[in-house]
Amino acid sequence: MILDELLLHESEMRRIRRKDHSSPGDGSLSPIWKWKITNSNGQFLMKQYRDTTAMPLHLKEMAGLSEEIPSQKLLTKDFFEYEGFPALIFTYINGNHPELLTPELSGFIGQSISIFHKKSGLIHGDTHRGNIVIGTSKKPWLIDIDKVSRGDKHYDIALLVFYELAFQESNKPAMQREGFSAFLEAYNDKVILDDVKRYIRDIIKESETVSAEELGQNLISNEKFNSRKHLYTRINDNIKGSLLMAFNP
Q1: What distances in angstroms separate CA 240 from CA 22, 27, 36, 101, 162, one per listed residue?
Q2: Is 27 a residue whose pLDDT tops 60?
Q3: Residue-level pLDDT at 29
Q4: What is the pLDDT at residue 65?
Q5: How many angstroms separate the CA atoms of 44 and 92, rounded?
Q6: For residue 53, what is the domain's CATH number?
Q7: Do 116 and 227 have their domain in common?
Q8: Is the domain of 157 the same as that of 69?
Q9: Which range is most confident: 65-69, 171-175, 225-229?
Q10: What does the alpha-carbon distance between residue 135 and residue 111 come to, in Å, rounded to a whole number?
Q11: 204 FRET partner, CA 20 to 30 A, in 84, 128, 184, 242?
Q12: Domain final residue pick, 91, 124, 155
């Protein structure tokens, strides 16, 4: 489908405003703006890269991966300009994010991430439940594949564990050991426990740095900063237990 068909003059375009961890207010400072496009050809997702450092570097690999796993499909072969910024268009997936990563969903992530790592040598770079959408047919889909990059596979696994430990330490529904066991079984490749732990600690340090910068720019309150600081401390204290005990069932 060519660009003119995706961006008809009759298209309804609605910006998806979703506040994230790094953007105050309506997300206007976010490096990536998302737009839902609706026209006679269907529904599509446009991502507008307002910070060039957020632009994906591996379009060919992204297109190939989207054919291998249930994920958003990249519909434009190259960037085009929209309102002065580079953009790409993907398929739009209707559905909801899961409130809990069950063993079944954990296995889906493990299998999908394994394909990323083995087929392309790339990592997803943002592995968490917010990038899983359960479609109208109850089928899971992996989204935000435009963040792929070169890197160590253990980073993807560590990021998943970090987020689930954050949910756990915040007394919210979180992946259990059985779920992580299902992930490892579906991943079906060697995983080095010490490397996962090392990356989790790196993610904690990076998160602490980002929080300090946001506090210095008055983007978050002292209360929010201290809450995050305590959360990161609890996650660090719990690295050896909980989910990672699935390595030694």
Answers
A1: 28, 35, 42, 20, 12
A2: no
A3: 65
A4: 83
A5: 4
A6: 3.30.200
A7: yes
A8: no
A9: 225-229
A10: 18
A11: 184
A12: 91
Half-sphere exposure of 115 (CA within 13 A, CB side): 17
* Residue whose tokens read 């564990």: 161
Do 147 and 57 belong to one domain?
A: no
pTM over 0.70: yes
pLDDT, tens digit, for every residue of 196-232? 999 999 999 999 999 999 999 999 999 999 999 999 9
Residue that terminates a domain, selected from 57, 91, 125? 91
What is the separation of C-alpha 140 from the centre of its chain, rounded to a whole number of angstroms? 14
Answer yes or no: are the C-beta atoms of 122 and 148 closer than 8 Å. yes
Rounded to the nearest angstrom, the gap between the alpha carbon of residue 116 and the centroid of all alpha carbons in its chain is 13
Query: What is the mean pLDDT of the segment spanning 86-103?
Result: 94
80 & 127 share domain: no
From CA 91, how far away is CA 95, in angstroms rounded? 13
Q: Tokens for 151, please give them.
A: 């890197």
Residue 130 and residue 212 in one domain: yes
Burial class (CB within 10 angstroms; exposed 0-12, middle 13-18, buried 19+) of 36 = middle
We report the CATH number of the domain holding residue 149 as: 1.10.510.10
Query: Could you tell me if 104 and 209 lie in one domain?
Result: yes
User: Domain check: are 64 and 162 in the same one?
Assistant: no
Residue 61: the pLDDT is 87
What is the number of structural domains in the chain?
2
